[in-house]
Amino acid sequence: MTIAFRPLRRDDFPLLRTWLEHPHVAHWWNHETGPDDLERDFGGSVDGTEPGEDLLAMDDGVPVGLVQRSRLVDYADYLEEFAALTQVPYEAVTIDYLVGDPGRVGQGLGTAMIRAAVADTWATRPGTGTILVAVVAANTASWRALEKAGFRRVAEGPMEPDNPLDDPLHYVYRQDRGDDGGGVAAAVTGSG
After folding, report:
1. Are 167 and 99 in contact (CB under 8 A)?
2. What whole-number distance in Å separates Cα of residue 136 and Cα of residue 93?
3. pLDDT tens-digit profile of 29-54?
4. Could you give the 3-state DSSP secondary structure of residue 24?
5. Cβ(100)–Cβ(135) under 8 Å?
6. What is the H or E stretch that residue 4 is in?
7. What is the DSSP letter of 14?
8. What CATH code would you report for 3-176?
9. Three-state SS for 79?
10. Cα 134 from Cα 152, distance rounded (Å)
11. Where is the N-acetyltransferase domain (predicted)?
């Protein structure tokens, strides 16, 4: 499986809405999915006015998931939550991810997407040496995928969960440039 990325576009919003409404995503992402909600939450990255990136993950040209990537220094509140639990290098990046198709869950796609996002980060952000990811402790599938992708748990503690029904306990995972074992190819293609 070769994962490639391209920037999310507005014409992807209907597909994204479907993904966000699937139960395996809805609990952990806890997103409102109306057109105005998607515009509010994703329109800025589509327009380039938001510092974070929303990347559509493609497997052999077929959309399979979403990866969000941002520098922690661009999101002061989130940076503060991380810094309360672990050291945060200045250029540290964080990612979030979802596997959209419920039929692809549990088949290694999440791990492949994470590995590809790491490889792409190292390739496109030469000043970045660390990726930090916070995961609700109860989201076992997510933190196991991170571990399979070479991340190591470096901290745990309370952070604001996306879903208010979740316990605030989060695990913080870290991968530094050179820790990933290399060899995972990823590409970011144009917004076409």
Report:
1. no
2. 18
3. 878 888 998 999 999 999 999 999 99
4. helix
5. no
6. strand 3-7
7. H
8. 3.40.630.30
9. helix
10. 11
11. 3-178
In terms of residues, how long is the chain?
192
Domain-by-domain residue ranges, the chain? 3-176
Mind listing the pLDDT tens digit for each residue in 53-112?
A: 999 999 999 999 999 999 999 999 999 999 999 999 999 999 999 999 888 888 888 999
Residue spans of alpha helices (H) in 49-91: 76-83
Q: What percent of the chain has pLDDT over 90?
A: 74
Q: Transcribe 96-157 into DSSP letters.
A: EEEE--GGGTTTTHHHHHHHHHHHHHHHH-TT--EEEEEEETT-HHHHHHHHHTT-EEEEEE
Q: Exposure of 32 by Cβ count < 10 A (0-12 exposed, 13-18 middle, 19+ buried)?
A: exposed
Write out the two tokens for 136.
């609700």
Give the number of other Cβ atoms within 10 Å of residue 126's Cβ.
10
Q: What is the pLDDT confidence band of residue 190, given thresholds at 50, 70 and 90?
A: very low
Among 43, 10, 16, which residue's Cα sits nearest to residue 31?
16
Q: Which position has the token pair 């190591």?
A: 152
